[in-house]
């Protein structure tokens, strides 16, 4: 092989992405759920493609799939690129697979150019990034961060199967789960469709992610007293529906105010609102809301959640109800992307003649977990109307190739600039 400048092959990248997409539940495209026979088929296909690209293929103890190219300097830490190949039910062809195939294309471009990096390069398909039937997301990247706790392996899925058994069934070895934890990664890069409209609306080629939001899900239940809607005077009511509604208003207004502070991205959504008995002529006895709060800044996220809890108590007092339940259902801390990798991505985009901007990620990603154990960053590419988790999800071939080229440039720069 002669030494040439490594270049992304857009046609090859696209045809691989479309070929992987064809491995779908045909009754509801595009569906390839983790732990299903289709997921295994997708992985068999990926293994073949990795091997054909000259990558050494292996699964780790958490059933993450890797293809590895050795570097020229033994003992150097790994440059890792990738995303996930699983989908939500009736999802798209790009959320996840675009990042896996783009990573594969970067490895192929390097190998074909005859250029050997100083660092080993690993392409990864992280296991089960989407919320699986076991009620857990980012299973593989969680394990690489050492955060797949033993009790999580006992979560039950379809037919009562243990998560640990399911991981072993798809090639993992959960008896040796600690072996999946990584401390040898110098850099992790993940390409992903934006799943939003910022890039498309600003006609920008590349998004460089500043950070991945932390997410807290808070359940609050107000308890009042059911009463006749006609005979109970207003002043004597204990209306749990009113309490819940006031909280919904507070969450939205406060999030809008916090978003103006300049302390990063903040959003909050009350997506679950229930009243009981939910009858037209009855003052609600019970009001239940579940709030999803997201922010880039960890301190701001915690402070906002504490404010919501305090406001709930104030509202209860004002409405003569009580806060019967106030519980954190889940909590994920924000993950900042590595400033040096972000700068390399920006340089890489510019070198390719591409426009770029910085933006936060309002959705969770494998990179959030990898960032616990390695410098990590993300490349976003535009997708049509921001639509995702739907069969209509779409990204242009050239847009994905531009993202892959940006990643390739960043990898080359990282590899040359690394100390030693
Ligand atoms: Zn994804």
UniProtKB/TrEMBL annotation:
Residues annotated to bind allantoate: 217, 281, 294
InterPro entries: Amidase_Cbmase, Bact_exopeptidase_dim_dom, Peptidase_M20, Peptidase_M20_dimer
Pfam family, one: Peptidase_M20
Cofactor binding note: Binds 2 Zn(2+) ions per subunit.
Record-listed Zn(2+) 1 binding positions: 84, 95, 192
Cofactors named for this entry: Mn(2+); Zn(2+)
Stretch forming the signal peptide: none
UniProt: Zn(2+) 2 binding residues: 95, 130, 389
Gene3D superfamilies hit by this protein: 3.30.70.360, Zn peptidases (3.40.630.10)
Domain of life of the native organism: Bacteria
Domain Peptidase M20 dimerisation as annotated: residue spans: 211-317
Swiss-Prot/TrEMBL keywords: Hydrolase, Manganese, Metal-binding, Zinc
GO molecular function, one term: hydrolase activity, acting on carbon-nitrogen (but not peptide) bonds, in linear amidines
SUPFAM superfamilies given in the database record: Bacterial exopeptidase dimerisation domain, Zn-dependent exopeptidases
Family (UniProt): Belongs to the peptidase M20 family.
Assembly mode: Homodimer.
Name of this chain's protein: Zn-dependent hydrolase
């Amino acid at each position: 092989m002669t030494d040439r400048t490594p270049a992304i092959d857009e046609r090859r990248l696209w045809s691989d992405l479309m070929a992987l997409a064809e491995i779908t539940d045909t009754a509801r495209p595009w569906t390839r759920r983790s732990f299903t026979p289709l997921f295994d088929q997708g992985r068999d296909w990926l293994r073949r493609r990795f091997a054909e690209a000259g990558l050494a293929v292996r699964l780790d103890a958490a059933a993450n799939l890797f293809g590895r190219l050795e570097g020229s300097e033994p003992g150097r830490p790994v440059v890792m690129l990738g995303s996930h190949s699983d989908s939500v039910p009736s999802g798209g062809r790009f959320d996840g697979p675009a990042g896996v195939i783009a990573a594969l294309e970067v490895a192929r471009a390097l190998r074909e150019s005859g250029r050997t990096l100083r660092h080993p390069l690993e392409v990864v398909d992280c296991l089960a990034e989407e919320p699986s039937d076991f009620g857990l997301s980012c299973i593989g990247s969680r394990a690489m961060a050492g955060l797949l706790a033993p009790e999580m392996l006992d979560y039950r899925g379809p037919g009562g199967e243990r998560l640990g058994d399911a991981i072993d069934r798809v090639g993992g070895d959960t008896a040796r789960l600690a072996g999946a934890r990584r401390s040898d990664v110098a850099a992790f890069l993940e390409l992903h469709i934006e799943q939003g409209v910022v890039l498309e609306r600003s006609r920008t080629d590349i998004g460089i992610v500043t950070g991945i939001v932390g997410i807290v899900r808070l359940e609050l239940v107000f308890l009042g007293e059911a009463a006749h809607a006609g005979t109970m005077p207003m002043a004597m009511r204990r209306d749990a529906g009113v309490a819940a509604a006031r909280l919904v208003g507070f969450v939205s207004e406060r999030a809008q105010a916090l978003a103006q502070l300049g302390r990063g991205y903040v959003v909050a959504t009350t997506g679950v609102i229930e009243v009981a008995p939910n009858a037209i002529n009855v003052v609600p006895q019970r009001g239940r809301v579940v709030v999803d709060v997201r922010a880039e800044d960890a301190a701001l996220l915690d402070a906002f959640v504490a404010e919501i809890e305090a406001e709930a108590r104030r509202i209860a007092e004002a409405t003569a109800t009580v806060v019967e339940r106030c519980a954190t259902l889940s909590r994920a801390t924000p993950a900042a992307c590595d400033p040096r990798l972000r700068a390399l991505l920006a340089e890489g985009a510019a070198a390719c003649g591409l426009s770029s901007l910085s933006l936060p990620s309002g959705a969770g990603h494998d990179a959030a977990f990898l960032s616990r154990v390695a410098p990590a960053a993300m490349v976003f590419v535009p997708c049509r109307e921001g639509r995702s988790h739907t069969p209509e999800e779409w990204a242009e071939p050239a847009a994905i190739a531009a993202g892959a080229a940006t990643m390739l440039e960043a990898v080359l720069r990282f590899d040359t600039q690394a100390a030693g």
